[in-house]
Amino acid sequence: MKQKIFAAARVAAAGISGLAFVAVVGSGTATAAPQDCVVERDLFGASATCGPDGGSNYVLHVDCVGLYASGPFPLYAVGPYAALSYPFTPTGQRITTGCTGMGPGVVAVATNAYVEVYRG
Which domain of life is it from (predicted)? Predict the structure, then answer.
């Protein structure tokens, strides 16, 4: 029993170390965005603003890694998932999406962020 507890502690420590590495390496400005959009990423989410171009709408897509709600409370999972800023945001307006708003007790970091533009 004692060996199982130590093994679980080692796995948890390795997972936390991996998240810390992703947090340090993964912060900064995202580069995958249309030319008229600015995406700013931080440790736990991202913000985006796209310039007006005649009626487009856009969605901010943030890739996250960590603990997240995988179903109705209290079901949780650990791993990658996506956070989206639906509904559509009209151009010229700033939108922010975070990795930590996906359920109570969620702990995750942003690994990538980009804008999906929908022309209408």
Answer: Bacteria
> Between these two residues, 38 and 1, which has the higher pLDDT value?
38
Within 10 Å of residue 55's Cβ, how many Cβ atoms?
9
59, 118 contact by CB (below 8 A): yes
Q: Which residues pair with 23 in a beta bridge?
A: none
Containing 106, the helix (H) or strand (E) segment is: none
16: left (phi over 0), alpha (psi -120 to 50) or beta: alpha
26 is written with which tokens? 């993964």
Tens of pLDDT along 43-74? Answer: 999 999 887 765 578 889 999 999 888 877 77
HSE, side-chain direction, 13 A CA sphere, residue 63:
11
Domain boundaries, the chain: 2-118
Give the alpha-carbon dihedral of 102, 107, 110, 111, to 10 degrees. -120
The dihedrals phi and psi of 90, each to the nearest 5 degrees, come to -65, 150
